[in-house]
Design brief:
Layout lengths: L4 H17 L9 H19 L7 H25 L6 H6 L7 E3 L7 H13 L6 E3 L6 H12 L8 E3 L7 H13 L6 E3 L6 H12 L8 E3 L7 H13 L6 E3 L6 H12 L8 E3 L7 H13 L6 E3 L6 H12 L8 E3 L7 H13 L6 E3 L6 H6 L2 H4 L8 E3 L2
Parallel strand pairs: 1-2, 2-3, 3-4, 4-5, 5-6, 6-7, 7-8, 8-9, 9-10, 10-11
Helix pairs in contact: 1-2, 2-3, 5-6, 6-7, 7-8, 8-9, 9-10, 10-11, 11-12, 12-13
C-alpha cells in the first residue's frame, strides 16, 4: 500500500508525528495501531484548526486509542451476534460512555439501514449531536424512516448532513414535518446535491418560519431551486430572520428574479446573516441592483459574500458599490471570480473600497479581464493606510 500516494502520505504523517510526540520514538507495530494514531492526528488538526483547542497529542493518543480499541471490540462482538447496529447498552459494555457524533458517509446505506438506524436513535434520542449520512442513497423512503427520531421531544441533534442522498419533494415533506414538530435544537442543515426543486423547498418552510427555529447554517447548493423556491424561502426567512448565520444557495438557477425575492429577508433590521454564497446562480445586472440595495439598507451584519461565476459585468459591480462604501459595511471576504469584470468595474470597486478600506480581509478577482489598467485602478484602495487586506487573488 505504501506505493499508493494517499497511503504513503498518511504513513509518513503518522510516523513523523509519532516520532515527535512519543517518548523514546516508539512506532506503531501494526496497521491497526497506525490507523488509530492517524485518527488521533486528524483529531488534533481539527481541534486546533476549527475548535481553537490546544494540541495535547500524547494524552489524545492514549484516550483515542482506548476508545478505538473499545469500538473495535464492540464491532467484533456484534458481528459475531449478527447485529449491524450498536445500541447504547452495547457501547457501555465495552467502556464507551456516550456518543455525540455519528458519520456514515458513503456506506451504501439504503431504506433498510435507515429503518434500523431510525429505530435505534428513536429509542435513545437525547445524546446524539451530529449525524452525517451524506453520499448514501437513502431516497425519500429512507428519510421518512428517520423522522421518528427527529420529531422526538428528547432529540437534541444539532447538525444534520444529508448531502447527495437522492432526496426529492416527498423526502422534504417528511423532513420538514419532523423538524417543524421539534425545531429548537437543530443548528446546521445541509441538503446539498439533492433534487429538492422548488416544491421541496416550500415543504421545508414550515420549519424555517417557526418562532422556535434556531437554525444557523442552511446549505441548499445544487438543489434545482429557481424563482419559485426563492419566493418560499425568502418569505420563511423574513418571518424569522434573526437566527440564520450562513446561507448557501450556490449552483441553483435563481436568476435576478429569484435574488430579488430574497431581499426582504436580507434588508430586515433583524437579519444577522454572516455568510451568503450565491456562486453560479445566473445573476446579472438587475440581480446586483436588488442585492446591493438590500445589503446597503442593512450593511453591518454580512461578513462574507460569494458571487463568483455570475456574469455581473462592470455594470453589476457598480450597483454593489453603495453597500461596499457604506461606513457600516463590515464585509471581510468578497469573491467575484469569473464575473466578466474589466477596467470599468475595477474603477467602481476601487473607489468604493477606498472610501471604506479597513474591514475587507480577502478579495478574489480571478478569471476576470482586469488587465494592467484595471489593476492600477485598485491601487488607491491598496495604498490606503487604513487598508486591512490580507489576501488578494487576481490571476
Amino acid at each position: 500500500m505504501c506505493h499508493i500516494p494517499v497511503f504513503a502520505g498518511s504513513l509518513l504523517h503518522v510516523l513523523e508525528d509519532r516520532l515527535k510526540t512519543t517518548e523514546g520514538g516508539k512506532l506503531p507495530m501494526t496497521m491497526t495501531e497506525m490507523y488509530i494514531h492517524f485518527l488521533v492526528v486528524q483529531s488534533k488538526v481539527k481541534k486546533v484548526k476549527f475548535d481553537g483547542g490546544a494540541a495535547t497529542i500524547h494524552t489524545g493518543v492514549q484516550r483515542a486509542g482506548r476508545c478505538t480499541e473499545s469500538l473495535g471490540l464492540t464491532g467484533f462482538d456484534q458481528l459475531q451476534k449478527g447485529n449491524l447496529i450498536f445500541y447504547k447498552s452495547d457501547l457501555k459494555e465495552c467502556g464507551i460512555g456516550s456518543i455525540r457524533a455519528a458519520s456514515v458517509f458513503r456506506c451504501e446505506i439504503t431504506e433498510e439501514g435507515c429503518s434500523s438506524l431510525g429505530s435505534a436513535l428513536k429509542s435513545n434520542p437525547s445524546s446524539l449531536r451530529e449525524l452525517d449520512l451524506s453520499g448514501n442513497k437513502l431516497q425519500d423512503s429512507g428519510v421518512k424512516l428517520l423522522t421518528g427520531f427527529l420529531e422526538s421531544p428528547r432529540c437534541s441533534l444539532e447538525t444534520l448532513r444529508l448531502i447527495s442522498c437522492g432526496i426529492t419533494e416527498e423526502g422534504c415533506s417528511s423532513l420538514g414535518s419532523a423538524l417543524k414538530s421539534n425545531p429548537s435544537s437543530l443548528r446546521e442543515l445541509d441538503l446539498s446535491i439533492n433534487q429538492l426543486q422548488d416544491s421541496g423547498v416550500k415543504l421545508l418552510t414550515g420549519f424555517l418560519e417557526s418562532p422556535s427555529c434556531r437554525l444557523e447554517t442552511l446549505s441548499l447548493s445544487w438543489c434545482g431551486i429557481t424563482e419559485e423556491g426563492c419566493s418560499s424561502l425568502g418569505s420563511a426567512l423574513k418571518s424569522n430572520p434573526s437566527c440564520l448565520r450562513k446561507l448557501d444557495l450556490s449552483r441553483n438557477q435563481l436568476q435576478d428574479s429569484g435574488v430579488k425575492l430574497l431581499t426582504g429577508f436580507l434588508e430586515s433590521p433583524r437579519c444577522s446573516l454572516k455568510t451568503l454564497s450565491l456562486l453560479g446562480c445566473g445573476i446579472i445586472e438587475e440581480g446586483c441592483s436588488s442585492l446591493g440595495s438590500a445589503l446597503k439598507s442593512n450593511p453591518s451584519s454580512l461578513r462574507e459574500l460569494d458571487l463568483s461565476y455570475n456574469q455581473l459585468q462592470d455594470s453589476g459591480v457598480k450597483l454593489l458599490t453603495g453597500f461596499l462604501e457604506s461606513p457600516s459595511c463590515r464585509l471581510e471576504i468578497l469573491s467575484l471570480s469569473g464575473c466578466g469584470i474589466t477596467e470599468e468595474g475595477c474603477s467602481s470597486l476601487g473607489s468604493a473600497l477606498k472610501s471604506n478600506p479597513s474591514s475587507l480581509r480577502e478579495l478574489d478577482l480571478r478569471g476576470n479581464q482586469l488587465k494592467d489598467s484595471g489593476v492600477k485602478l485598485l491601487t488607491g484602495f491598496l495604498e490606503s493606510p487604513s487598508c486591512g487586506l490580507e489576501t488578494l487573488r487576481w490571476k
